[in-house]
Every structure is written in C-alpha cells, then in structure tokens.
Design goal:
This protein is mainly α. The chain contains 15 helices and 3 strands.
C-alpha cells in the first residue's frame, strides 16, 4: 500500500474512533478499507485523490465473484454488506476532511435471501453440545500440561459464553475480567451490536465455569492485557476445529462449529423449550423481533 493510502487509512481509523464506534467496528471497517486500498494499488491508484466512483463499482463487482479464502464458495452477503458500509463511511470521511471531489457513498447493499439464510444454519442439539464439552478433556494429549491447560480452559470458556450466554463473537473477544460481576452473578456487555450495552444474568453452570476460569486459571497466568480470553479469535477458532475433529460423532463433524453457531444453538433450544420470542430477543441483544424470528423458521423447517 502506498504511503498516501496508508496515512488515509490511519486517519480514517482515528475518525471512526472519535465518532464513538465500538472497538470491533473500528477494527473491521479499517481492515475492510485496508483491503480496498491494497486492491487500488493493483489498479495503479496510489493517491486517494485519484479514486473514482468507477473504481468503487469495479471493486464491489470483484468482491461478489471473489472466492472465500477461508472456506469454499464466495463471500457471504453479510460480509459483503459490511464491506460496502465501511467504504461508504470512507467516502463520508473524505468529504468531511474537505475532499469534495471524492465519490459519494453508494448506499449499495445486497438483499439477503431469508430462506437461504435459514437453510445455511445448522445448530447443534443439546446432546451434541454436551458431547463436545465432554471431549474437551481429550484434546491435545501430546501437549505438555501448561499448554494443554490453556487450550482446554479457553474451550470451556467458549461454551460458557457463546452457548451459555448467547453472546456474539466480537462481544466475547472484547470481554475483560472486570466485566464479570461475581457478586451479582451478571456479565456486562460493552457496546454490543448497534452500540448497545446490556447485562446478562449468569446461570449456575456458567457462573461456576467463569469463577473457575478466572480464579483458578487466568489469575495465575502472566498476562499483560485485560482481556478475558488469553488467545486471539483466530487461535480459539482453531481450537474449536480441533475439538470437533476428535469428537467421534459424524453428525457433529458434518456441521460448522463456530462462535455464532453456538449462539444460534442456544437460541434454537430456548425456543424449542417454550421460551417466548420476546425473551429470546432480549437475551440475544436483538434490537427488533424480526432478527429473532429466524429461529422460528429453523425450528419449523
């Protein structure tokens, strides 16, 4: 990336932060714009004042046919729309700093097919979740104790938070130890989706996992940061894959195991157990019931 685009990228990141966007939004939007600038470099554009509306249109078209680097198929509609939003924000930023010849925000978004989204969600059953949890102690048998313990304790934490509390990936990655109130048995989510804070009551099972993790494991580690998780999102994702591989159940192995699938799984199970859609929406931190209604389609398909 050219020096000019690198400077703009950094200033854009700082601008997002001053507007009060959450840490995860700032990080993801900045990452999307960095990808865009790297693509511009391949098109011979090294100065931001050379950017045109045609460049943006061409890039958007390219993204919609670009293969997914992590798994088979193309980029998801959700990922594409977030990228489009990040670049629209970039155009807004450029106008605010006086670059009035910059292209205007496109407001281009792809409408997601709701039935297709429902068909792509394959939640785990309560029994499958239990089987996965029971196999955590069998992971990484060749690792020495200290390294194995770090992996296993964080796997337990993943299930407690993303399944037991139904939180989003970015919410979990942003959690700090001080967000857990052991006196009131609650978890504080700072600036979740749509910049909303919320408080989640902890079940007895989740409370015990968090208590053991913090006092008997994390507090004994030499860590300089305040995050609850020791490892990065990427490292934790790999640990989930490793757990899935060693679980001798072909149905479990055939499904995608991610942070968000764990969230989908608890929401689906709550609905199956008779919890109202309104209470599930509040539990998940949804701003409208429309987002939660997808679970009724999953249960009834």
């Amino acid at each position: 990336m050219s020096e000019n685009l690198t400077i703009i990228n950094q200033e854009y990141k700082e601008w997002l932060a001053t507007l009060g966007f959450s840490h995860s939004i700032v990080y993801n939007y900045n990452f999307s714009v960095r990808d865009f600038f790297n693509w511009l470099d391949t098109q011979g554009v090294s100065q931001i004042n050379k950017l045109t509306a045609k460049h943006i249109t061409t890039y958007f078209n390219y993204l919609q046919i670009r293969p997914n680097k992590r798994r088979k198929g193309g980029l998801s509609t959700a990922h594409l729309n977030k990228t489009f939003d990040a670049i629209d924000k970039l155009m807004e930023f450029m106008h605010q700093i006086g670059m009035h010849t910059a292209p205007n925000p496109t407001n281009y978004r792809i409408e997601q097919d709701k039935q297709e989204r429902v068909n792509n969600i394959h939640p785990f059953t309560k029994e499958e979740i239990k089987e996965l949890q029971n196999n955590i102690s069998k992971t990484y048998p060749k690792y020495h104790f200290e390294k194995r313990e770090k992996k296993q304790e964080q796997l337990k934490l993943i299930f407690a938070l993303f399944y037991g509390c139904g939180i989003r990936r970015t919410e979990g990655m942003n959690l700090e130890v001080t967000d857990i109130n052991f006196d009131t048995k609650t978890l504080f989510i700072r600036q979740g989706k749509n910049y909303k804070d919320r408080i989640i009551p902890l079940s007895t099972g989740v409370y015990k996992v968090l208590e053991n993790y913090v006092y008997n494991f994390r507090n004994l580690q030499k860590i300089t940061h305040r995050k609850l998780f020791i490892h990065s999102s990427c490292g934790l994702t790999n640990s989930l894959k490793d757990l899935q591989k060693i679980t001798p159940n072909k149905v479990i192995q055939s499904k995608r195991l991610t942070f968000h699938i764990l969230r989908h799984s608890i929401a689906t199970q709550l609905l199956q157990n008779g919890v109202s859609i309104e209470n599930i929406a509040q539990f998940l931190g949804h701003s409208s019931l429309e987002s939660t209604q997808i679970y009724t389609h999953i249960v009834n398909r």
